[in-house]
Hints:
Helix content: 55-70%
Mean pLDDT: 83
Number of strands: 3
Strand order of the largest sheet: 2-1-3
Number of helices: 11
Amino acid sequence: MSDTSDGEHHVSQFENQRNEGEREPNAWAFVIPFLAFMLIGMLYPKFDRVYRDTLDPAVRVDTDNEEIVLEVNQVKTRNYVVLIGLQVVVACGILFYFRRTYFEQFPLSFNWIAIPVGIIGVVLWIGICGLGIERMILEPIGLSKYVEVRASFNPFQQIPDQTYLSIFLALRFSLLALLVPIIEELFLRGWLIRYIENPQWWVVSLSQLSFNSVAVATIYGVLAHPGEAVAALVWFSLVSWLMLRTGNLWDCVVAHAVTNLLLGLYIVRFSEWHLW
Length: 276
């Protein structure tokens, strides 16, 4: 009688643990960092917008005389640096607050394959962007100038003070190579595409997603990078392949971080500020 009772107790305990493990995590932990990051980004000052209209690395601004504007209002520059700093502080705070949720869903580990995937990703991104494929597709229908790329903000020209410049670069690379990969991958692959796969998203394995769910990640990438749509399509598909192969969110984060870090170093080294 005692043995049966003990057995029932262990079975009951196991069922409780399993149910706890399948309890819905706080979805806001994955959404709030992304929303906060995007909302602050929407406050960035409106620098002169540039367009890619030739295969040359030179870009022009959308002004009446179409000349390159090299000087940006110093107030805009200062506000830009402050907002980037705010993004770093807010993102770190939110991620730290929800850290337990992330590690419960995705125990911290990564496979070394993520590093070469990230390296291949940056080579593909730079190479495809350099081809100007978007322009070549839209030029025959007269829409090539609307292939929008990022404002060509050169911190070495706009921030003469070396201390201020160092602070900006530290903040910018913190976002680019660390916080953006974590925030974007947590939102996109940690929650969004899993939710699309199954409303009980917390039980969905990243290695067993359907084509439709995986395609959402690529569509998001294209919409988020309209000026580099083809490069985004290829890069996000590559990282989705990595996700399906390993089923590990942190592999996607590492690959994303490697690509962004190398891209940032490339931009600074070769002054390709339109990729910034």
